[in-house]
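Worked example
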Amino acid sequence: MRTNIDPVTLEVVGNYLVSTVREMGATLMRTAYSVILREQMDCTAALFDPTGQLIAQADHVPSHQGTLSYGAKYVAKNLPLEPDDVVIMNHPYQGGTHHPDIMIFKPIYAGPDQVALAGALGHQIDVGGRSPGSVATDARDVYEEGLIIPPLKLYKKGQMVDEVLKMIEANIRVPKKTLGDIRAEIAAVAVGERRYTELCERYGAEKLKEIVAGLLDHSEAMMKRDIAQYPDGTYSATGFMDGDGVDDQPVRIAVAVTLNRGNVKIDFTGSSPQLRGPFNCSISSVQAACFCAVRYMVNPAIFQNEGCYRPISLVLPERSVVDPEKPAPLSGRFHTLERIANTIVMAFNQARGEQAVGSGHAHLTSFSTSGRSPENGEPFVLFEYHGGGWGGTSRCDGLDATFGLMANCFDNPIEAIELEYPLRIERYELIADSGGPGKHRGGLGLRKEIRYLHGEGYFTNRSDAQKFPAEGVLGGGLGRASRHALIRADGRREELPSKITNLTISTGDLMVLESAGGGGYGSPSERDPVEVLDDVLDEKITREAARSIYLVELQPNGREIDWLATRALRGSKEPRHGSTQAHPSCQG
């Protein structure tokens, strides 16, 4: 570690960089056109050194922390950059992730020398391909999934290359939104350039370079210190996905995590071979999942930069789900990287003992729907996703209806959807009893029902976890599996698999999405009866579950605990509880 930079300077500059990338992200969201960026925050912003090493990244979407960095390295290595250039790309085999994630990069200069690189990534609402939203679940190769953009200069020395935007516009369904979102990304990198230039003016380019190097070394040292607190050894776990959208065979994610004196090696030997469907994972996304999962095991206050990644190495079997060969499809890779991150956390459970956590829902309940506006007949595309339950922990219940380890996005406000689309949200609620039972319950899944109001269009379901519900730990129970259905306007109900593409839908049809719950922690018979009563009153569990699973009997009014009957249910043992009084809501 470098010792010639004082810790106060490291802290001041480190937080300035964090503030900068957060401002870049805020700029992106506030100027974006589509709800997926301005409302759901499926975007990120970052700063890199001239070689593409990550300097700082906004706390937006964790899955972008390795992906944008991989893209920056590719651009830095393969494209000569000049002042006021702007680079655009999404090529999943040339540093990108999947087609909708369009990246923008801008070099930052101090005098004649490049000192940094600003980057932004936004999930675009549509980039072409055979399915609206560019989310086909049965694509057979990368060309079916949408427009592929290799690293190209969108601006050359400050002059826009109009032909690039015209080419993009000609290949997508909703160009106004997509091109508007690309401009929002350009605005974000411009903010990064301005703020980093100010930092150079304050410290000088050479001194700032030294400070940044010190920040990276410091993060590396802190990562190794925290990882070394776990016992050295190899810890294995296996996770499964429902299928790949083409074959109805489970997809296997096998990991062996080896801890050795603060270093981590993650070996994927034994994972499924390369898939026919689009749930292969590009190397940038595999890196992101691994980096993120390990970061969950250490102090979150460590500055997020390239130094965090140095202790982590990967073993990726060739032509496997985690190292596919072009032109293998991979637009659905987010579900795979969620499963990867969750499986790594499950492997770490063996090293964490009583600090183990229940499995989360480990995927993304997502769908797209499309059609034409009743006002002007223009095409519309909505791609939306929802969270599920997190696993219970040694300290508390799992989070309810929250995005997984790799997302950190917001729910779309109902008002935003109904104002912009001919859709009506008729139900949006937590699902009782969906969290795995335990001393600390798994988080609940959610139910959302969306009515299609005008004309005819398409519906694509890109989800998972129907076959493999979240597992509990240390006696905790399984979470509830996900469910999906389409209720036609005439009342016919069609149960849907987790992956299906371009179903025709019409006026009055109802899309029903039920996300999965998280696994529980510890025996449900050890849950505080007062917490059980709280859950019943909050409609998070049913009264039947309180009695049959948690062994807590309520009084006939359903608002107080029957302590005598509860002791009998729990084997005449005095129930563990915080109070023998009625629940506060029953007082007065």
Observations:
- Residues 577-588 have pLDDT under 50 and may be disordered.
